């Protein structure tokens, strides 16, 4: 927990490379999973003309993001292959690598125990 918010570590796999991110907000109120463009650039995840662009809105404000499919996204033993993420600036006034949204949590069937701060 940081500033009263649950942060987790996840790994992104793309083009046979893997990066771990320690400052990912666990957000059951977020429909999608979003990563900072600055943080995923090392995986070659940059905007291309064919990438879908859309506007997302939340408590942190609104921004335009683009979508990409990655080879995999992992949270502990939970892993999804060929998973779609969104990429944006994530300038919300706190250090954040990404937001893990309900789209991932629901697909893996995650249960969140807030008393123990565990996901299983």
Order of helices and strands: EEEHEEEEHEE
N-to-C terminal Cα separation, in Å? Answer: 17 Å
**Main sheet record:** 6 strands, mixed, barrel
How many structural domains in the coordinates?
Answer: 1
Strand percentage lies at over 45%
Total helix count? Answer: 2
Q: CATH homologous superfamily - what is it?
A: Acid Proteases
Query: What is the tally of beta strands?
Result: 9
Structural class: mainly beta
Task: From the alpha carbons, calculate the radius of gyration and give it in angstroms.
Answer: 14 Å
User: Which CATH class applies here?
Assistant: Mainly Beta
Please state how the strands of the largest beta sheet are arranged side by side.
1-2-7-3-6-5
CATH fold descriptor: Cathepsin D, subunit A, domain 1
Nearest-integer average pLDDT: 95
Q: What is the CATH architecture term?
A: Beta Barrel
Any low-confidence stretches, pLDDT <50, length ≥5?
none
Characterize the overall form. globular
Could you write a compact summary of the structure shown?
The chain is mostly beta strands and 120 residues long. Helices cover 9% and strands 50% of the residues. The protein contains two helices and nine strands.
Can you tell me about this structure?
The protein is 9% helix and 50% strand. By secondary structure, it is mainly β. The protein has a single domain, classed as Cathepsin D, subunit A, domain 1 (Beta Barrel). It has a 6-stranded mixed beta barrel. Strands 8-9 form a two-stranded antiparallel sheet.
